[in-house]
């Protein structure tokens, strides 16, 4: 089998970690007998500053022809915050109907977590974040601007259809795992949105009697997730709450250096996109201090999505093997550079 | 001086922890030479189930005559989630213009935090949460209900006036502390609301050149707060984000058992309200397992608000003294009951 992959390294440490992921993918294709056709695309802060281009029809058309997209990171102090996030990342998630943002929260053996006494056995959950609507639709208005009476209204728009596809996905996932699904919302306060979410979860849940259903307010989630992650198997939540709790998830699994994610198009109408959870970290770009494992695990999720389950598992196992030998996951205390870590993972993929 | 205090014990462990707080207040008034006139009010789940009464004009009128309100907790599995929260707690915060929800995040010596290696020196910040608007206004609508095309819209309403009073308060507080203020929002996505928040912070900040200004996205806050709390002094944020990050704050300071809060009316038009951050915990009610320190520290915040700074500090010091001797902060492993902890704090207030 041959897969066509679009590669968008982006800014800052994006190109470094993508280099690392590509090393591993290259080795994996030989070992597992598939082949990848890689096409690089320029995009991000530097590209925007030079050309003024963000997400656009032409690029969308080109990307659409690929089987999947591997994405690095975007952002640069020279570009006003929000421009690239909204103008590129959210634009892609919406244009390509990447309905589910899938974020595993898994503490790997040997990885240093800031949570005292937390063990890998107790920390293995997946957060399923709605990825195209909610507060991320960018709806709102400001009236009486520049007066003492300014009112800024920000809207969260939630559709039954948008929620349903994510919730269906979450139940299917839970049924294939420990059979527990937790809805995370704030339905006691956000009554309209919360009611629709709970309604959809109850309706879809009726078809999954084997999956145990739970509900946790988003504030309580921040309280329980760090100290009792074993309480959770699959957590389904809206776009904004998902953004928030997945960063907390990254903390407990040992930092952004190891956290991976998938932005999944569920109906095959456009490619899915895979990215590490970390940002472009311009302060450490070019130093070899970035941990490529988040990008490598995202590449493994890409392979799993394409049906190359065995290769995906081998990459995950290899990454775990290397993580166990790393005293520090990122920054100046790292004993291996970005490239060396990627080489070590690639090496383990072939020898395992 | 004599102060008139309304006491609302509420449900579950509310009455137990309020008993504890009252023991300490009673001793403090003798030691520090002021006197408290306490008036108890029935409210909460049990009261609602019996009478159908929630917040109402008559109760509001009675409470208004007091100098401050000491509040226990509300909630019971027999009452649908949201009824008491919206019908009583939020109703009070809004009716009494309790504009600021003040939540110190302080790790006391000897308290067990789940964050590995965290020390008290590194964890002493205050979260200033807007308490009357944002997503908590309850605005929203659902169209095409019960069809495949249901759309639920939830609004966050932010006014310049509402934001300004909170931001002013936060700057004043920062100026009296380590002189650092962090705005926590998600302005790259929630553009309308985020713009107004940043605008107000910049405008008010111009009058506080001695206060260093920072901005952190709410997702990044969840990433930094647990591992680098020393980065923060005063954090100002909106109602929903404040709800979320203060629970995370409670985690790092060692659990809900010790977290205190004030709901401050800033213009003297109505009384302020003081409550522990924990809920009614019906599962452990009546067992003597509840930690009264959150309620005791909230009572200390009440005294500080009334101008009894010295008594407030003495109570905090006494609570710290007792916390240092407690191996477990709540639950069946506690070596002291709710009442014994309160007695020990009261004892230390007089002897210190
Ligand atoms: C970059 C930004 C738009 C994005 C988000 O808010 O979704 C990021 O924080 C994430 O979680 O993927
Ligand atoms: C009880 C509930 C309404 C409340 C809130 O959401 O504000 C609580 O979570 C809090 O943080 O005080």
TrEMBL record, chains A, B:
Domain of life assignment: Bacteria
InterPro entries associated with the record: ICDH/IPMDH (IPR050501), IsoCit/isopropylmalate_DH_CS (IPR019818), IsoPropMal-DH-like_dom (IPR024084)
One Pfam entry name: Iso_dh
Keyword Lipid biosynthesis: no
Stored SUPFAM superfamilies: Isocitrate/Isopropylmalate dehydrogenase-like
Domain Isopropylmalate dehydrogenase-like intervals: 4-345
Record's keyword annotation contains Metal-binding: yes
Keywords: Manganese, Metal-binding, NAD, Oxidoreductase
Cofactor(s) listed in the protein's UniProt record: Mn(2+); Mg(2+)
Listed PANTHER family: D-MALATE DEHYDROGENASE [DECARBOXYLATING]
Protein name, entry field: 3-isopropylmalate dehydrogenase
């Amino acid at each position: 089998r041959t897969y066509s992959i679009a590669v968008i390294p982006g800014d800052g440490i994006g190109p470094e970690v993508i280099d690392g992921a590509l090393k591993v993918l290259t080795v994996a294709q030989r070992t597992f007998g598939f082949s990848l056709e890689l096409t690089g695309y320029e995009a991000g802060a530097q590209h925007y500053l030079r050309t003024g281009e963000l997400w656009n029809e032409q690029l969308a058309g080109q990307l659409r022809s690929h089987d999947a997209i591997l994405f690095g990171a975007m952002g640069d102090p020279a570009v006003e915050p929000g421009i690239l996030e909204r103008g590129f990342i959210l634009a892609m998630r919406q244009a390509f109907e990447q309905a589910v943002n899938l974020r595993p929260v898994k503490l790997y053996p040997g990885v240093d977590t800031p949570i005292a006494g937390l063990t890998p056995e107790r920390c293995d959950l997946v957060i399923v974040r709605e990825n195209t609507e909610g507060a991320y639709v960018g709806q709102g208005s400001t009236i009486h601007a520049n007066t003492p009476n300014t009112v800024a209204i920000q809207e969260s728009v939630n559709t039954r259809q948008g929620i349903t596809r994510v919730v269906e996905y979450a139940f299917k996932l839970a049924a294939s795992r420990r059979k527990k699904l937790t809805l995370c919302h704030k339905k006691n306060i956000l009554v309209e949105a919360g009611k629709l979410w709970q309604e959809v979860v109850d309706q879809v849940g009726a078809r999954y009697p084997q999956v145990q259903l739970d509900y946790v307010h988003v504030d309580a989630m921040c309280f329980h997730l760090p100290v009792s992650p074993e309480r959770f198997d699959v957590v389904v939540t809206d776009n904004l709450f998902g953004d928030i709790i997945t960063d907390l998830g990254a903390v407990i699994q040992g930092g952004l250096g190891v956290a991976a994610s998938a932005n999944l198009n569920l109906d095959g109408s456009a490619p899915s996109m895979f990215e590490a959870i970390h940002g472009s970290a311009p302060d450490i770009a070019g130093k070899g201090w970035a941990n490529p494992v988040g990008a490598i695990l995202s590449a493994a999720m890409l392979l799993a999505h394409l049906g190359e389950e065995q290769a995906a598992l081998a990459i995950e196992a290899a990454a775990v093997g290397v993580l166990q030998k790393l005293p520090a996951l990122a920054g100046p205390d790292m004993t291996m550079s970005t490239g060396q870590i990627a080489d070590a993972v690639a090496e383990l993929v072939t020898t395992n």
